Structures are given as structure tokens and as C-alpha cells.
Amino acid sequence: MCGIFFWINKNGNVDPARARDALMTMEHRGPDFQRLLLWDGQKSALTPYENFADGPEQNGCFAAVGHARLSIIDLSPEANQPMPGPGGTVLSFNGTIYNYIELREEFEKEGETFRTSSDTEVLLKWLTRHGLTRNTDLNGSWAFGFFDPDRKTLAFSRDPYGERPLYYYSDGDDFIAASEIKAIYRALGNPVRAFDPRQLIAFIGYRNWPTAEPGKTLYHDIHQLAPGESLFFDLKTHTFESKHTNPVEAYLKPHPDAGTITQDIKRAVTWRLRCDVPIAVTVSGGVDSSAVASLIDLGGDTAKRITFYTAKFPSGVSTDLPYARTVADDLGIELKEVDIPCGGEAVETLYRLSKLFDMPVPFGGSTFSTFYLYQAISADGNKVVLNGTGGDEVFAGYGNEYIEGAINELLSQMKFIRALTFAMEAVKQGWTSYKALALMAFKKLTFRPRSNLPLKNFVRHIKPAFRQAAELANGLYWGRYAYRQSLTEVQLSDNVRGRLLNYVTFSDLCTMTNSIEGRSPFLDPEIIKYTGLPVRDKFFKGFNKYALRAAMPETVSKSVTWRRSKQGFTYPFDMFFKNNRKTIIEKITSSDLLRELFDMDSLLAAMKGFVLERDIIMHMYSVAVFAEIYPCKLAPAE
């Protein structure tokens, strides 16, 4: 993984020095090599930053293309980027094309020659020949920009799950795109950051970055390319359009066969081990990471570069470590246990992550613990890490909305008794509740979208100027229509407009902050088809992810394969809140940004005893901390 940067100015006013500074804000993404190329609007070839003289002989600077490289495949200088192509074209690419060997072999059969062994050169030749018309033939995780100065075009693309980020800013003069938001703001001269009030309220209420509108961010002037989307920029008119060229839905297949799950995951794992650097594999003791670890060929040469890691929490925090140790014993692997601190250093970690992430940090799941784990993995010299992200979304590892989808699917097939018995089993297993099922029935009868924003109960405590934004924030709940969708439809929504986009964004930030590349075998495009499995293959005999469990190699103990509960690397944020409650309250009540948004005293008083009081207050605290680091304001409510 790497950092990419593009800046187009229609008047030739790109500032080379500022562009260089913007690129270097992402040095952690690419510590091995950085290069900035500049274009004067006339020549076919771009000029390196060091050789660009902005004088009478220049027509100004109309474009900058930058890259910060984390060397993973072909470590030689010849594989550095931005990589030049025919006719002055230039590619700046973040990510990995996992099937680059197979694509290269196709080219070589046709007489093509290569000067490197990198996946970047394969992608460059692919784009030169096909453009962005055959993105679904690429198996990888990517965000790239392909600049053609002769045709005066710039094309961007992002992988189907959005594993690699691409943010952009556009006004009448400038178009700036980068792997991280901080690079864009640096190019703009570090202005005061303006939050979109609706998005910010949704963040506080949903306790996560809003993803229901994948092209939006928390900032009113920063957008992002949606998963599976391509953007085509015309430098002649300074206009652009976006198209869904490789959405998740494009990889679905009718009637997927659960009998091929093992071979598909094994191939996905094998391809994600393709690299020339040391590799880490995380093992939490859950089904997903255990499946990944168990399908690695431990007898091959690649295995000599692999180290297995798990998280070790203080006593009483997590029950997963014994399961991770069981998997290690089953597979005969050495498991390195990383101690996860859960004390006073958490406040310092929040400040650090806030600065690095460019957004307020969600207090949920494995936010802190994964950061600590990847920090240790990087310190050991690893540059690639495999994880189990995506298993829950593809094979149905969640309750609530997924249960609603499953019931809808069964009802649409006229399986009324099966739907009833499944609903009762779901309540028994704790996947949902009778109250939630009653609400689902009410929504189906009234055709009213589901509202899941806790702050709707406290709208009167939001300042009048932003109350409409709070009402509109209800529309940013990804599962609003789960009451009428099939299980497959719910999963697809969760994949690109729900929780998964949060998880892959967080994974990218956590890995790249530590200069390592994260790879997720379950997000392989050939595995997307299993979201189309019938309900019986997802929920059966009191188990979720049934087909994945049934496909688990027998080398893994049944106590791991068929365990019902899991914690993963979940951090004890309840302990954080308890230990820092006074500091948290003081911080949010003194925040000018939050006071502009809320009638703070009345809001805190009204929330006392509310079931999500702690979670909402924690996320208000995250916003307050972020606003202390970066100058922020609220954009006018639309």
C-alpha cells in the first residue's frame, strides 16, 4: 500500500512546493520512496519536481502527480511510482493486484515484455490496453489515478469494497485527490475544517463514521470515490463524471455452491501471500481468522516469512485468547502474543489516532487494540498483514438487520413455518429480540423506514439552526430498509453502505499509520458470490455463518469452529469511560464546536440513565478532542 496524490488547476496555479508538502504528509504510507511529477500543460511528459523551473520558460503548473511508496512486490527502484507509460501517461497506484501473475502471463503470450516483476507495471499495461472498461477482471484492492497528458484526461478507480481510500476536493479552479484527507487540506493551505452538521450528528449518534452515502465524508467540502466507482476527469473542460464500473453486485453469481468455499478461500489466501517482504497473520480465535490461518500452505517457502500474532488483554477483559492458542496448537504454529494496554495511555492514544486519522475516532470494537497490534507487527519488520475482515459480512455473522433480512427472504419463498421457527431461534440465540421483531412487523405494515439514530430522542437539545440536520441524519442509517429486504440485499447494503466500509477504512488507517499493508482474503471478488447463498447456509442449527463453519478444515478444533460467542480484539471502552469520566465531561462541556451544536447542559441532563448515554458521550468526547487538534467549524446547515 502507498499514498497517491493528484492536483489539477485549470489556470496553471498548482504550487509545486505546496504539492510536495502535501505528498509528504503521507510519508508513513510510503516511507521507502516519494516522487512528485509536474505538468506544464504543454509537454507530453511530466517533469520531476526537482527539475521543474517555474520561470518564463514555463506556462505555469497545471498538474501534479505524486506517490509515496511502501515497497511490497519487486523492491527495486525500477518499480517506483509514479510509473510512466506510453505517450507520456503516468500511473499512481495504491494497493495490490493479486492476480497480476495471471494477467502478466496473458500479456506475455501475446508478446509483451516487462522490465519489472511488479504488479504496478502489469496494471499500467492493462490500463493502456483496456482503460477502465474491464475492471472486474482485476482481482485486488486498489485506488489509482491514470493521467494522460496528450488526451488531457485523468481516470480514477477504487476496488469493489473500498479497501483502499481515495478522497477528493473540487471547486471552480482546483481538483485535488489523495489517499488521505490531510494531504488535500495541506494543498489548500490548511484551512479551518468545516464539518457537515448532518454527518457529524450521525457520527455521534451511530457511533461510527456515516457510510450510507458512500461518496460523502464528515466534511462538507471533501468527498470520496465510492467503492467500485471510477471517476473520469476532463482537463479541457475541468469537469468530471463518476460511474460504477466494478460494484460488488457485478460479482454475484446465481446459485453459488457452498461446496467450493474452501478452495476459493484457499486461493484468495494464497494470492494475498504474494509479496517480497515479511508477512504477519492475525489470529483472534474466531472463525474467520482461524479459517485464513488454517488454509495457509505451511510447507512452502513463503511460510518461512510468516509470523502469526494475537492480542493479549489484561485478565478478565477478553475470553478469546484460549481459542487463539488452540488454533496455534491445532496448526502447529508459533503464536506471538501482543500485550494490549488498557490503562491511562488510552487518552494519549486517542489524541494520536485523531491526528493520524483526519477524523474523530469511533469508540467501538477493536479501534485501539488493532492499532496496538499493528504497531507491534510493524516494529517486528513485517510489511504485510492478513486478517479476517469481511467474513461476517459475506457469510452472515450478524444479528438484528440480518435476521430481518432472513425472515423476509423466507417469507418471500412462502416458507412461513420456517420463518416462524427461525425467528424464535434467533431470539433464543440472542441475535435479535421480540421487541425488534415487533418493530419490524410494524414497519412492514406501515411502510415506514426504520429510524435508528439515538439522538432523535434529544432533538430539542440541538440548537435550532441544526435541528433539521439532526432529523435528516436519520437517513444515514444503513439498515433503514432491512425490514423489507432479503438477507442477501441486507448484506450487500452492509458491505458498501454500512459497517464494512467503516472497518476497511479503519483497517487502512491503522495499517498505513504503521507502514504496513493490510490484506483481507474474505474480500476477494470471487468470494462475493457467497452472499447469495440461501438462508439455510447462513443460519442453521443455532449457528450463524453455517456454510463457512462447515467448510473449515478439520485441522481446526471443533471447539473453535462451532463456538457461538466471540469478542475478537474488542477494546474495553467501558473501562476507558469509567476511568476518565470526569475528564470526558469537562472536555465536551468546554468544546466550542459542541456548544455551537448542542444545548450542552440540558442534553447531558436529559441523557442521564439513557441506555446509550456512555456511547454518545464518548463520541462527543472524540469530536471535542479532534477539534482541539485541528481548527474546526460547522458548515451552514443545508
Which SSEs are present, and which pair or pack?
Blueprint: E1 3-9, H1 16-24, E2 33-39, E3 47-48, E4 63-69, E5 83-84, E6 90-97, H2 100-109, H3 119-130, E7 140-148, E8 153-158, E9 167-170, E10 174-178, H4 181-187, E11 193-195, H5 197-206, E12 223-224, E13 229-234, E14 239-244, H6 261-271, E15 279-282, H7 287-294, E16 306-312, H8 321-331, E17 335-339, H9 345-357, H10 367-379, E18 384-386, H11 391-395, H12 401-412, H13 416-428, H14 434-446, H15 467-473, H16 487-497, H17 499-513, E19 517-519, H18 535-538, H19 546-550, H20 558-561, H21 573-589, H22 592-597, H23 600-607, H24 613-629, E20 632-634
Parallel strand pairs: 11-20, 15-16, 15-18, 16-17, 18-19
Antiparallel strand pairs: 1-4, 1-10, 2-3, 2-4, 5-6, 6-7, 7-8, 8-13, 9-10, 9-12, 13-14
Summed up:
The chain has 638 residues and is of the alpha+beta class. It is built from 24 helices and 20 strands. The longest helix has 17 residues.
Structure description:
With 638 residues, this protein is α+β, with helices and mostly antiparallel strands. The protein contains 24 helices and 20 strands. The strands form 4 sheets. Strands 3-2-4-1-10-9-12 form a 7-stranded antiparallel β-sheet, with helices on one face. Helix 5 packs across helix 15, helix 10 (367-379) packs parallel to helix 17 and helix 12 (401-412) packs antiparallel against helix 13. It is globular and about 70 Å long. The model has no long low-confidence stretch (mean pLDDT 93).
